[in-house]
Amino acid sequence: MVFGHSALELAHEQSGVVLKFLVRDALREWKHDHSSLKVAYSHQWTSQRSSEARKVGPDYDWTFTTEYKGTISAPVAEGADAASAVVGSLVETEEKIDLDRLRVPEPMLFFDEVVLFEDELADNGDSFLSVKVRVMPSYFYVLLRFHMRVDDVTMRIHDTRIFHEYGSSHLLREYQTREATYQQLAQQGKMPSDLSQLTDSNFVWTILPLTGSTTHKILLSAAAPSASATPSTTTDVASAPEGLDKDLAHLTISS
């Protein structure tokens, strides 16, 4: 099921950088190459078909795997100099999001989750894409997660994490992929006795091995702010408490 009107948008007022999470853009990055994955019982009926019949199959990735990381836009004024053009661009970095920082207790000013699409893969598993946003007094954090499970065959997770500490001149965007087959997990002793746990993407994340990771800075200015820079404390975030940093100029959620 595609939730075509669901979306999350965050904007940085001073730079004009806008970060959106849109289902249509996510599906544009859906892998259109042929998927070699088969359902667990496929060998039972493929062995009974002719060789010509076995060649017939979907010419697309029927698991709806997407490598979508969000949509970034930044206004470029006519005649803008090269420094202005840097704003909103991506720069690869070795810096990582400090997950321990996210566990430090702070008042949660805002939280929501938006499901962009989901599919039960013809009752052979699950595939979904959702985005969560958390706004805290000193930072905001976004988790875009694609989770796919083909029962008794394989599982994968694609996570895009975006972290911004107020007053910083950039956002951190960390993209990770995790994947393993049921057989690999069983050989490693990681398969739970209660298979219903495999429907929980947070649990699955703990047992899948990391297969890829990249981190980029999304630049909000051409140069880092001075140490004396003090962020504003006003915002127009709908229904959010006063006191949020102006770094989060507005947040729009549609569902």
UniProtKB/TrEMBL annotation:
Gene Ontology CC: one annotated term: cytosol
GO biological process, one term: TOR signaling
Pfam families noted in UniProt: TIP41 (PF04176)
PANTHER family on file: GAF/PUTATIVE CYTOSKELETAL PROTEIN, TIP41-LIKE PROTEIN
Homology family: Belongs to the TIP41 family.
Protein name according to UniProt: TIP41like family protein
Source species: Acanthamoeba castellanii (strain ATCC 30010 / Neff)
